Amino acid sequence: MVQIDGRAAGESLVRARGLGKTYQRGGEEIHVLQGLNLDVDAGEFIAFMGPSGSGKTTLLNLLGGLDVPSEGSVTVAGDEITRMSARKLTTWRARHVGFVFQMYNLIPVLTAFQNVELPLLLTGLSKAERRRHVETALTVVGLADRMRHYPRQLSGGQEQRVGIARAIVADPTFLLCDEPTGDLDRKSADEVLDLLGRLAGEHGKTILMVTHDPLAAERAHVVLHLEKGVLVDTVTAGRAR
Fold first, then answer.
1. pTM for the full predicted model
2. CB under 8 Å to 122, separation ≥6 — which residues?
3. Terminal CA-to-CA distance of the chain, rounded, Å?
4. Which residues contact residue 68 at a Cβ distance below 8 angstroms, ignoring those fewer than 6 apart?
5. What is the structure's pLDDT at 52?
6. Which of 43, 136, 137, 139 could form an S-S bond across to 169 if both were Cys, CB 3.0 to 4.6 Å?
């Protein structure tokens, strides 16, 4: 179960303690996150909501090792990532984190297969092993019949599903999704949310998602609200396990 007050047992997959992030703007300090504590168990699907500037994306970046906190710590599966060197953190991210972004970030000159394969090129997997992983990931997202298509030949929803296949192809410890339906129409958004729900429910994936969309948040197990860098409450979502 998610805890936001730091009282959960030490078995949580993701643990943040006293997490803070401060930026300098001119002579002013901007406190984006302040003393945040968070525990997330394996298999949870969490949605973060809050107004623009509340620190949602900053929190995802810190949990995924894309940024470093000004204070506090982040521990994932027993690894305290806030103490890692930049080089070690790069290796850790490649192994443990799958990122899903609003704008898909597919490479237009590569096929769906080649886009999904990209993270595996940094591993020691053989060509045959990479093919198996990519075909499995594209099958999971329902696009096995589109693997030779280029992004321009896909709908927005299909492009996002390719992005999700790329995020899961290396079997990461957890997924970080930043407004994954923000650029989609309602039908495509629902298809992507159905997929994320299946990844959590059927495949046991831990998913942390930032969204402004209440309908998207309803798909999560728990909704957490950020206000001015502070987690203010926990709401059980409409489609809890």
1. 0.88
2. 94
3. 11
4. 62, 82
5. 87
6. 137
Other beta carbons within 10 Å of 107? 11
Question: Is the Cβ–Cβ distance between 6 and 37 less than 8 Å?
Answer: yes
pLDDT at 199: 94
Q: What is the mean pLDDT of each run of 10 residues along the chain (241 residues)?
A: 45 91 86 92 94 90 93 94 91 92 91 96 90 96 96 95 95 94 92 94 94 93 91 61 38
Exposure string (b/e) for 134-156, b if CB count within 10 Å is 16 or more? bbebbebbebeebbebbbeebeb
Residue 192, both tokens: 């992507």
